[in-house]
Design goal:
This protein is mainly α. It has twelve helices and no strands. The structure holds fe (ii) ion. This is Thiaminase-2/PQQC domain-containing protein.
Length: about 250
């Protein structure tokens, strides 16, 4: 498994080079603007709870590896509530007709983001070996570390200026994701020492690549969103704004 973890480390570094991550690090941009992609993340943030509850978690299980995955699912299955809380606090809670919000959530602009959990669900369903499922779970976690590390830096600035704490985008979420839930002490050593056959290892590599590809596409789409949508009118594209004005 050491080789799989090494690949995950490399993929993490690649992810860090994406325009979205660089944009988030750019201190010349206002902190809130660096989080302007939040509406685009919604389909993923909301789906992720279900992915953990209904797909990644396999209960009951006597398999130690599946048990480790299960513990993580209990940690991650309710973070969408923190997301909604932060959406409100950060001022993204605009009032728009229900049909328009649904249209946005299922629009082409949010397609890659919306499909991340579906893609992972399929990879998981078609690979029943717990070691392969662990590789998927580790890859997902790693992508979370990359993005949450950066949101935590931005949230810190916003907390200072707005005197608010942010449970999804703030440091506490990063700490939870990088910490060890009860029952997973020494888990890293256990995972690293797992022996994989050559065939399993190659399959695990393939799955790690696929997970990172899904997240890379999602982060690309979030960056596109920043370009096309304004912070003030997050659900209305400039072209649509013109149309609406023409109608008026
Ligand atoms: Fe989370």
């Amino acid at each position: 498994m050491k080789d799989v973890l090494a690949l995950i480390r490399i993929k993490k570094q690649e992810l860090e080079q994406l325009p979205l991550l660089k944009y988030m690090e750019d201190e010349s941009i206002e902190p809130l603007q660096r989080l302007a992609w939040i509406p685009c993340l919604a389909p993923f943030a909301m789906n992720f709870g279900d992915l953990n509850k209904f797909v990644l978690r396999q209960e009951p299980s006597n398999n130690k590896i599946q048990q480790i995955i299960n513990i993580h699912t209990y940690e991650d299955d309710h973070h969408w509530q923190w997301f909604l809380e932060d959406v409100q606090k950060l001022g993204f809670d605009h009032s728009i007709p229900f049909s328009k919000s649904l249209k946005f959530m299922w629009s082409e602009e949010t397609q890659k983001t919306r499909l991340v959990c579906h893609k992972i669900g399929l990879l998981y369903t078609f690979n029943t070996d717990p070691i392969l499922r662990l590789a998927i779970s580790e890859a997902i976690e790693a992508t979370g570390h990359v993005i949450l590390y950066r949101t935590a830096q931005i949230a810190k600035k916003l907390t200072e200026s707005r005197k608010q704490k942010y449970r999804y985008f703030g440091q506490s979420h990063f700490d939870v994701e990088t910490g060890h839930p009860i029952g997973t002490e020494n888990v890293e050593e256990f995972i690293a020492t797992l022996e994989l056959s050559e065939e399993t290892k190659n399959k695990a590599f393939e799955l790690v690549e696929a997970v990172f590809t899904a997240f890379t596409e999602m982060f690309g789409e979030c960056m596109e969103y920043i370009v096309n949508y304004s912070l003030e009118q997050p659900y209305i594209k400039p072209i649509d704004k013109k149309r609406e004005l023409a109608i008026l």
